[in-house]
Amino acid sequence: MAENFYTDNPELHFQLHNPDLRESVEMREEGFSQAEEFPDAPENYEDALDSYNQVLKMVGELCAESIAPRAESVDEIGVSLENGQVSYAPGTVENLKELTEAQLMGVMLPRRFGGLNMPVTVYTMMTEMVSRADGSLQNLFGLQDIAETINRFGNEDQKSRYLPLFCSGEVDGAMALTEPEAGSDLQRVQLKAHYDSEKNQWYLNGMKRFITNGCAKVLLVLARSEEGTKDGRGLSMFICEGGPDLVVRRIENKMGIHGSPTCELQFNNVPAELVGQRRRGLTRYVMSLMNGARIAISAQALGIAEAAYREALKYAREREQFGQPIIKFPAVYEMLCRSRMELAASRALLYESTRYVDLRDMYEEHNQHAEEKDREKVRLEKYYSKIASTLTPLAKAMNTEMANRVAYDGIQVHAGTGYMKDFPAERFYRDARITNIYEGTTQLQYVAAVGGVVQRILEPLMDKISHMPFEGRLRRLASRVDMAREKLNQAVKQVEAKGDSEYYSLMAGKLCEMEIAVFVSYLLLRDAYRDKEKTLIADLFIQNRMPLFENLYEVVTSGNTVMIDNYEDILS
């Protein structure tokens, strides 16, 4: 068993420093003026980095020494519902207690509420490590976006009442969005919010289903506040608290993630408060929540995959067949090398995404509170927002599909023993499976990202990396990626020129996968330029992805509509 999940993974340290977070951190720390008011606030950027490293080491140690050893029992015991009360496994209770005592329940919240005021990037590294230790715990620790949403959109009274309680661990959170008839199509939400003018109070009535940690003490609820509406413009966001009028009707019996309760909720005239403005629940606030959720689930998938890979590697080195460790067999080391490469590539995309989320959030907050609008800062907010909105769904698509492949191969390396509960490989496989489903399936991530792909939002970033002074092997690899980017641009133009919405939808996933192949290749080349030891990973990724890219290019540019024209016959 590893002693520390941060120090045993140099990739995390590398991603924290390359490229640096200086711009967003300086804005978050208000030019480091917070050091005058808060003793624990950093005095400069180097001080901030040191603080991040120390906290990440602490989380890494907690994950390795406490959380990971409890994961098996948490999975076996799961959660229970009795007399309307949900109970966690004892290991989960201990985990949450230790995370609270370590003051890790308000990582991104401002210091004035008791938070650590740390960037999304650092918090995401924490969630990756927590997920490596116990994938189900991430569904509790990773719900800090609930408090962050209140911080961004709630009024000052709501912030002062709720945020200190989140930071101290006195309350936990959940987001109640999904309903029996409104899964991904949240415009169909029917849970009703009605306003009692005499009591000056909102009340919620209806059902919610598949709510992660629905037994939480504080819930953000999407509800229909406008009588007679049927679309997203009639929805608002509300805060409510758990109580006798909010009934947990059942908890789901799931394939994996057993330590986290997934609840069906009945709202019986539950008192609630409006968050922000009416009618903006879906169009503004849920979209913000979903962006945070994409990052969180990407990190969850990455952590589970890291655990699966390490367990498979350990087994392959120890298991002997035909007189030698099975890692000596090409069929085995090929799977493990592919897993190692996919982990590095997915991690590069995830932390590139969080850097732009940090920049977007900081410029948005600055512009929201600025007395006079600075045109350049408004432009940068819009620019970073477009990049973040393109990267976050691409990251979720890539990381979660990767996690399923790595967990699958992890069982394959173990062979028959991997199918048994004697080894954690089968738990990783079960836990990974949900990641490319909840918070938006991979197919919906393509829908969310394809607009940015078609608009070539990431093109300037790729162009900048392309012009780095690569030499030798890296230059040859970069030239190959440059040619692929030209083909990607041609494919995008051809799909647009066709002017067929159904064909556009059919090609969306293929264009997104082509974008991922090219963009991540550039990221890995940039990493290899900074650290020559990463050249092998960049080479392996490009050698693996470019043939797949070429196949996708041929499909997209062929203009073949046989599936559209004949899908009913094919499926008959």
In short:
This protein has 572 residues and is an alpha+beta fold. The chain is built from 18 helices and eleven strands.
Please state the CA-atom Rg, rounded to the nearest Å: 24 Å
CATH fold annotation of the domain at 458-567:
Four Helix Bundle (Hemerythrin (Met), subunit A)
Q: What oligomeric arrangement do these chains adopt?
A: single chain
Under CATH at level 1, the class of the domain at 458-567 stands as Mainly Alpha
Low-pLDDT runs of 5+ residues are: none
* Number of E-state strands: 11
What is the structural class? alpha+beta
| Shape designation | globular
User: What is the H/E string?
Assistant: HHHEEHHHHHEEEEEEEHEEHHHHHHHHH
Question: What does it look like?
Answer:
With 572 residues, the chain is of the alpha+beta class. Among the domains are: 173-279, Butyryl-CoA Dehydrogenase, subunit A, domain 2, CATH 2.40.110; 458-567, Four Helix Bundle (Hemerythrin (Met), subunit A). 59% of the residues lie in helices and 11% in strands. The protein has 18 helices and eleven strands. It has helices at residues 10-17, 22-28, 45-77, 90-101, 120-133, 138-141, 145-153, 156-168, 281-318, 330-369, 375-414, 425-433, 442-454, 459-466, 472-498, 501-530, 535-558, 562-571, and strands at residues 80-82, 85-87, 173-176, 192-196, 201-212, 218-224, 235-241, 246-251, 262-275, 320-321, 324-325. Strands 3, 4, 5, 6, 7, 8 and 9 form a seven-stranded mixed beta sheet that branches. It has a two-stranded antiparallel ribbon with strand order 1-2. A hairpin with a 2-residue loop joins strand 10 and strand 11 (324-325). Helix 5 packs across helix 9 (281-318), helix 7 (145-153) packs antiparallel against helix 9 and helix 9 packs antiparallel against helix 12 (425-433). The protein is globular. The protein starts with 9 loop residues before the first helix and ends with a helix. The model has no long low-confidence stretch (mean pLDDT 96).
